[in-house]
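User: Teach me something about this protein's shape.
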Amino acid sequence: MVNRLQYDNITWIDVLGPTEPDISLLAKEFGIDPVVAHDLLTPTPKPKVEVSNNYFYTVLHFPVSKHTHLEDSTVQEIDFIVGKNFVITVRYEIIDALEQLAKEVEVKTIVDKDMDRRSGNFLFFIMLKELYESVENELAYINDWMLIIEKGIFMGQEREMTISLSHALRVLLDFKKTMRQHGHVLPAISLSGKKIFGEDFGFQIDALETEHAYILETINNHTESAVELRETNNSLLSTKQNEVMKTLTIISFIMLPLSLIAGIFSMNTALPIVGTKGDFLIVISIMLASALIVFFLFKKNKWI
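Assistant: First, the predicted structure itself:
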């Protein structure tokens, strides 16, 4: 599906699910290199930046976490071709940030804020800014998730929170791996864009690099918090398990003399007390007395 948006001299072509006929028409209209046009047809696993005479081409990936706490995090790809008066975006699935931006461009609420900067590179800057804000919103959601996990840990749900923490750390690691790549791509975009749009383009990328640094710092902070929560959770879980083992050990020690006495009096040989009046009650009394002696011995030594 090809969606064409126009604002004065700026043309935004948004392609969702590219097909060969659609890309061929766009390549002829905007003079796109055949190699670049071929790359647009399928997802590209790694980010890249290429520059031509009248446009630059870049591939960027953005992390997205499904808000179910059970889904794996995913990476969404957007291919950009940015010229002086046009921007082409190619994506392979619905991306909420671009969908929202398209609505704003249609009602002319974005570019009106800077009437003297109506150009493809400014629209590209706005796009990346919106996409970075969407990543920050995802991180805010993860922060809320971490607060829920923290509450669960101190409410005695250590076992359940172990699984949740593992999911949270995996999502954060995926976010970090994806966003780190932008640190290498943004300087290359800046150099390529300056050749086409002039030195002012560098200031726009500088602003994006600042926002990118903030995102990485937020990811690192969330990761550190998750690691600390995992250590706390493991300590609480270990303490609880030790208490259970301690209780079972005490019970075993208390039962040991009972088992020993029962074993002795079950021997097939002549035994004292056995056969006398009230022998059963005497044996039971000896067993109870032994259990009480062991119990008070543990108590005296403060083992329980």
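Now, about its shape. Residues 32 and 129 are 25 Å apart (CA to CA). The chain is about 65% helix and 15% strand. If you'd like, I can walk through any region in more detail.
User: That's plenty for now, thanks!
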